[in-house]
C-alpha cells in the first residue's frame, strides 16, 4: 500500500541503486588505480608492498605472540601452530579507551598496549615471564624472547618486515604525533620500558593476516589469492607478481627480502579507492557524512562500505525523512502514538550502530517485531507504526545492498587483473569482519555482482571460493612473525 512515507523511502532508496554498468565502470577504474599504485607512491590506492613473499602451507610450527590494534578492541593472543593446518589460540580482549584513540599522545597509547601485553603474559605465560625477570636481575645476556606479530590495521608505509611508518589514521583514531613514526619502534620502546620478554618481529595489516591464516588453515595447490576485511573498516591484501611492483625499484631505503618466489603480498588499502570520486556513488548523505568526519576527502570507498559508516548513512537518511514536514516518519498521528525522545540516537552523530542494520535486514516477520525491538533498544523509539518500520527496512536494505555490491568492485578487479580465474580451476578468498559474517546475504550480493562482470560471468564466479577466516589477524600475525624469525636466524648464520 502506498503512503507518503513509503514513497519517500523508496525515492531515497533509489539513490542507493548501484547498477551493473556502474559496477563495471568501478572495476575499470579500480584496475587503473591498482596499476598506478604499483608504479608510484602517493597515489589514492596505496598498494603497499608488505615484504611477505610467501603464503603458508599449513606445516608451520611454534608458539608466537600476536597483538591486534585496529578496531574497537585491542587483542593480545598467543598462538600455538601445530604444523598440521591447526592451531590453538589463547586471547584477551580489551576495549580501547576513547581518550586514547583520539586526542592523546602516541606514548600513552603504546604504553597502554604494552601494559596489556604484560598482563596477558602474567596470566598465561608467567613461568616464562618470571624466568626472564630473573635472568635480567642476574645480568644474564641470554635472552629468550617471544616473537610477536603486530597487527596494526591502518595505512602504513612498510619499509621492512618489522618496520613501517604510519601514513594516516582511519576509523575514528586520531593521534597526530604518531603520523610518520615507525609504529613497530613505538611498540618495542614501550615493551622495553616494561622489561617484557618480547621482540616485535613482524608488522602486519589485518588483511594480510587474514590471507595468511586462510592459507594456513585451508591450503590447496593454489594457496589463497586474497584476504579481505569487511568490518569496522574495509581493505584487502592480495598476492602480486614482484615484477609488476615497479615502485620498489625506486624505493630509497628498505630492508632486504627473499625474492625467490617472484611474488609479494600487496596491502591495497582500498578504503581509499577513488578518493577523488570519479566513479563512486555519492548521495547527499555520503557527502554530509564525509564533511562531518574527522578525515574528510579520504577513505571515500570505506565510508560507503564498512560497518563504521553504514549506520551513520542510515541515520542521516532517517533524520532527513523525520524532519521532512510532508512525510510522517516517526510522527504521532490518529493511528500512531510513536515517541522519539530527545536523547534518541537518531539525533546524534554515529548514533546508529551497524548491528542495527543486520537485525532489521534479518527481520522477515509479518509484524516486523525485531525491527520494533531494535528501534526501541538502539534508538529509544517507542511504538513506531508499521509504516515507519517498513520505511526503515526499505532504507536499510538499499544501504546494505549498495555496500555489498560496491565490495564486489575490488574483488572483481583483483580477480581480473591477476588473471587467476583464467589460470586456475579454483580461486580462494579469505574474508573476515562483522559485515560478511553477520549482515544477511552480504556474500550473496557480492557473488551476484561478480556474475554481472563480463570478464567473470557465471562460470568464473563458480570458481571463486570465499571462506571466513576467523581470528585471521592473530594467527596470520603469528605466521608472519615465524617467517620473520626464520629469516633473522638465517641472516645470523651467514654473519
Ligand atoms: C585501514 C586498513 C584496515 C581496514 C580493516 C581501514 O580503515 O585503513 O589498514 O585493513 O580498515 O580493518
How would you describe what is shown here?
The chain has 495 residues and is α/β, with parallel strands linked by helices. The chain has a domain at 48-219 and 470-485: ATPase, nucleotide binding domain (Nucleotidyltransferase, domain 5), CATH 3.30.420.40. Helix content is 44%, strand content 17%. The protein is built from 18 helices and 13 strands. It has helices at residues 4-14, 20-39, 98-101, 106-124, 126-137, 183-193, 206-217, 284-291, 302-305, 307-323, 354-362, 369-379, 386-418, 420-423, 434-438, 442-452, 457-462, 472-494; strands at 48-49, 61-69, 73-82, 87-95, 146-152, 156-160, 163-166, 198-204, 224-230, 234-241, 263-267, 427-432, 464-468. Strands 1-11-10-9-12-13 form a six-stranded mixed sheet, sandwiched between helices. It has a five-stranded mixed sheet with strand order 4-3-2-5-8. It is globular, with a radius of gyration of 24 Å. The structure holds beta-D-glucopyranose. Its EC number is 2.7.1.-. Keywords: ATP-binding, Glycolysis, Kinase, Nucleotide-binding, Transferase.
C-alpha Rg (nearest Å) = 24 Å
Q: What bound compounds does this protein have?
A: beta-D-glucopyranose
What's the CATH class label of one domain? Alpha Beta
Low-confidence stretches: none
Indicate the mean pLDDT: 92
CATH homologous superfamily identity of one domain: ATPase, nucleotide binding domain
The side-by-side strand order for the widest beta sheet comes to 1-11-10-9-12-13
Count of discrete alpha- or pi-helical segments spanning 4 or more residues: 18
Distance between the termini: 79 Å
The secondary-structure class comes to alpha/beta
Largest sheet descriptor: 6 strands, mixed
Could you say what the CATH topology of one domain is called?
Nucleotidyltransferase, domain 5
Amino acid at each position: 500500500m502506498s503512503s507518503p512515507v513509503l514513497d519517500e523511502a523508496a525515492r531515497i532508496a533509489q539513490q542507493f541503486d548501484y547498477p551493473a554498468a556502474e559496477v563495471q565502470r568501478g572495476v575499470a577504474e579500480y584496475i587503473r588505480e591498482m596499476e598506478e599504485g604499483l608504479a608510484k607512491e602517493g597515489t589514492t590506492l596505496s598498494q603497499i608492498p608488505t615484504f611477505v613473499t610467501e603464503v603458508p602451507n599449513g606445516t608451520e610450527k611454534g608458539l608466537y605472540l600476536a597483538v591486534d590494534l585496529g578496531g574497537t578492541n585491542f587483542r593480545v593472543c598467543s598462538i600455538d601452530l601445530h604444523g598440521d593446518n591447526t592451531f590453538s589460540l589463547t586471547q584477551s580482549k580489551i576495549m580501547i579507551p576513547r581518550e586514547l584513540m583520539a586526542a592523546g599522545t602516541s606514548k600513552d597509547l603504546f604504553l597502554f598496549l604494552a601494559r596489556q601485553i604484560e598482563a596477558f603474559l602474567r596470566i598465561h605465560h608467567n613461568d616464562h615471564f618470571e624466568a626472564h625477570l630473573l635472568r635480567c636481575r642476574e645480568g644474564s645476556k641470554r635472552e629468550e624472547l617471544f616473537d610477536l606479530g603486530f597487527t596494526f590495521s591502518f595505512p602504513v608505509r612498510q619499509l621492512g618486515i618489522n618496520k613501517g611508518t604510519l601514513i594516516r589514521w582511519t576509523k575514528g583514531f586520531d593521534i597526530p604525533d604518531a603520523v610518520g613514526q615507525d609504529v613497530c619502534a613505538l611498540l618495542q620502546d614501550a615493551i622495553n620500558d616494561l622489561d617484557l620478554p618480547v621482540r616485535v618481529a613482524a608488522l602486519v595489516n589485518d588483511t594480510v593476516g587474514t590471507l595468511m591464516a586462510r592459507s594456513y588453515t585451508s591450503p590447496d595447490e593454489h594457496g589463497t589469492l586474497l584476504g579481505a576485511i569487511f568490518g569496522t573498516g574495509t581493505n584487502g591484501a592480495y598476492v602480486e607478481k614482484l615484477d609488476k611492483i615497479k615502485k620498489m625499484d625506486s624505493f630509497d631505503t628498505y630492508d632486504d627480502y627473499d625474492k625467490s618466489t617472484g611474488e609479494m603480498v600487496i596491502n591495497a588499502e582500498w578504503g581509499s579507492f577513488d578518493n577523488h570520486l570519479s566513479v563512486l556513488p555519492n548521495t547527499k548523505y555520503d557527502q554530509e557524512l564525509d564533511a562531518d568526519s574527522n578525515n574528510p576527502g579520504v577513505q571515500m570507498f570505506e565510508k560507503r562500505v564498512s560497518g563504521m559508516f553504514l549506520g551513520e548513512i542510515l541515520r542521516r537518511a532517517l533524520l532527513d525523512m523525520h524532519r521532512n514536514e510532508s512525510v510522517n516518519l516517526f510522527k504521532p498521528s490518529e493511528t500512531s502514538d510513536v515517541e522519539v525522545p530527545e536523547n534518541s540516537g537518531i539525533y546524534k552523530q554515529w548514533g546508529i550502530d551497524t548491528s542495527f542494520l543486520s537485525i532489521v535486514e534479518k527481520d522477515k516477520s509479518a509484524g516486523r517485531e525485531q525491527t520494533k525491538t531494535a528501534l526501541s533498544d538502539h534508538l529509544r523509539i517507542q511504538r513506531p507504526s508499521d509504516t515507519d518500520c517498513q520505511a526503515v527496512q526499505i532504507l536499510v536494505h538499499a544501504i546494505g545492498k549498495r555496500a555489498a555490491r560496491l565490495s564486489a568492485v575490488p574483488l572483481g578487479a583483483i580477480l581480473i587483473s591477476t588473471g587467476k580465474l583464467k589460470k586456475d580451476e579454483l580461486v580462494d578468498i579469505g574474508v573476515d569482519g562483522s559485515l560478511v559474517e553477520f549482515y544477511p546475504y552480504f556474500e550473496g550480493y557480492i557473488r551476484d555482482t561478480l556474475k554481472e562482470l563480463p570478464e567473470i560471468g557465471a562460470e568464473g564466479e563458480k570458481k571463486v571460493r570465499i571462506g571466513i577466516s576467523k581470528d585471521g589477524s592473530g594467527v596470520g600475525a603469528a605466521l608472519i612473525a615465524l617467517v620473520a624469525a626464520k629469516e633473522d636466524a638465517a641472516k645470523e648464520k651467514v654473519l
